[in-house]
Structures are given as structure tokens and as C-alpha cells.
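Posting for a labmate who doesn't have an account.
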Amino acid sequence: MTEINEEILEVHSKNKIKNKGIDMDNRGDNDLEKTIDTLRQRAKELMAINTSHQQLMGKILQENEELKRDNKSLSKQISDYFNAR
């Protein structure tokens, strides 16, 4: 068999194996490229969560300040009410 025919058969064999759900290039759990890609994706997800939490925290802080002002105002109203009697 010629060298080209052997290469064609090899490619064809790899394709058959891939089609059966087996990946010839899969290095398993030790595949560093796969690990790096997974970690990069997770980092993107965590950055999105962080941004979301920062926005939520900003809203919570604003609401907290508003509640403090309302509480102070109500406290003064109650004090004025009882002092007016």
C-alpha cells in the first residue's frame, strides 16, 4: 500500500472511532488545554456573578440608607407626638 493510502485509511479509522463517540485526541482528566478552557469559562461565569452581586449590593445599600432616613424621621415624629401631649 502506498503512503497516501495508509494516511487515508488512518483518517477514515479515526473518523469511524469519533463517530462511535470515542475521541482520539481526548487526553482524559489530564488534558491541560481542556482544563484551561474550563477554568477560563468558569472565570467568566464568576465575573458575571460578581458584577451582578455588586449591582445588587449597591441597590441594597441605597435601600438601607433610605430605611435609616425613614426610621430617623419616624422616630422624630413619635418623639414630637409624645412631647406635644
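Reply:
Got it, the C-alpha cells are right above this. The chain has two domains: 1-30, 34-85.
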